[in-house]
Amino acid sequence: MPDMKKFVGSFLIGGAVLSGAGLYAAHAAENEQDITARGAYLATAADCIACHTRPGGKPFAGGLKISTPQGDVISTNITPDREHGIGDYTEADFEKALRHGVRKDGAYLYPVMPYVSYAGMTDQDIKALYAWFMHAVRPVAEKPPATQLSFPGNIRASMMAWNLLAGSEKQETGDSASYDKLRRGHYLATALEHCGTCHTPRNFMLVEKQDQYLAGAALDGWYAPNITPSETGGIGDWSEDDLVTYLKTGRIKGRSQAAGPMAEAVEHSTSHLTDEDLHALAAFIKQVPSHEDDKDHKARDSFGKAADNPDLRSGTLTRIDNLSEKSGAEIYDGNCAACHGQDGKGTANQYVPSLYSNSVVGSERPDNLIMTIVYGVDRTTPSDHASMPGFGYRSDVQRLSNDEIARLVNYVTATFGSGDHHITSEQVAKARTDHLEKMVSHVIVKTSGKSE
């Protein structure tokens, strides 16, 4: 029975006195709303929409291809559509898929679905998440294509062996909303936000190296950096408030800006968390074991200063048919200086960030700088929108070749960051190829069969 003292004020509704049965029904409805609201928040924290929604597609209808060494895994429709989604899943079926990676039909899911992390969720949160998906998400009658992997990935039963090697998070108990700060932060980082999925390196079996938790890993052409408290290779010079600001807005002056997969995580997930949860998450990350980086031996955001460069323009017009090779400085002047400034300071409010004291430019790994130049930045949070055009093949401003991007990267890092890394056009081409496979795969082809 409900707590009657709590609902004394609920006896008078619409001028009528509720009977005991009516009061119980009102309380049940309120509880259902609370559970559904909790489920919505959990789905946001778990960033379910990131993998289960293709660009331009309907929410949670699947169809996004996720690259693996054995082929592309296509995410499933997880709307409550009974034929194409999970509408006929019981709560027990839902729990088995979420925690153990097993579909209703008994087939094993591929671990791009982070059930290894979701295994740590509480029963109460599983129940709330199930209620939200079943009663608040709009059903979509779309069937994504079937996943086709090479051997041995095409044998789903092989996931049994992988699961034994990978292990999983230990299931938490009690009410996760009542946890103390560090326990709540641990729960968010490991069970919901699954930070390690991107930021933890993996072995040859693609199992996360738990002894290097959050030490950094390659990701579809990007690099998810070391975010342990290392003062050199990680973010040890960041305060808890710095990290909260970054997770909430996607940027922090004089340190870093989110692009690529991290921008998606900020846009769809972390920017919508409560301040209390953001502080819990940041506090937990700040106290994980520190790992030194094998390449970054100085804080990435500690490099460089404003450049004192003369204006390169001579007053002589450049012919449009002049195909002579331009230097990195000339490419920067023609494509970047208008926003970032000839001196690299950016704008006064840092909407356009400075290129020095910038963790992307200061990193010994140029992956993220290359990808940002090619694909740009497009990040929306409740507080603002950040945008930078890309200069890749689909650019609306200027299409730069692989060789031009390589020269530009070398100029930017030499002038404002960690030095000239002698990036080649072949390295830029590889970064583009790694990411292009994922971008092209966003196109859905109607087909039969089940996905993921």
Overall description:
The protein has 452 residues and is mostly helical. The protein contains 17 helices and ten strands. The protein has a two-stranded antiparallel ribbon. Helix 9 (240-249) crosses helix 11. The two termini are 42 Å apart. The relative contact order is 0.11.
List the keywords.
two-stranded antiparallel sheet; 452 residues; globular; mainly alpha; disordered N terminus; disordered C terminus
Compact description:
With 452 residues, the chain is mostly helical.
Helix/strand order, N-terminal first: EEHHEEHHHHHHEEHEEHHHHHHEEHH
Radius of gyration: 25 Å
Q: What is the number of strand segments?
A: 10
Mean pLDDT: 86
The fraction of residues in strands falls at 5-15%
Summing up helix and strand content along with how strands pair, one would put the structural category as: mainly alpha
**Residue windows where pLDDT falls under 50 for at least 5 positions:** 1-18, 437-452
Helix content: 25-40%
How far apart the termini lie comes to 42 Å
Number of helices: 17
**Shape by Cα distribution:** globular
The largest sheet has its strands arranged as 1-2
Q: Main β-sheet, in a few words?
A: 2 strands, antiparallel
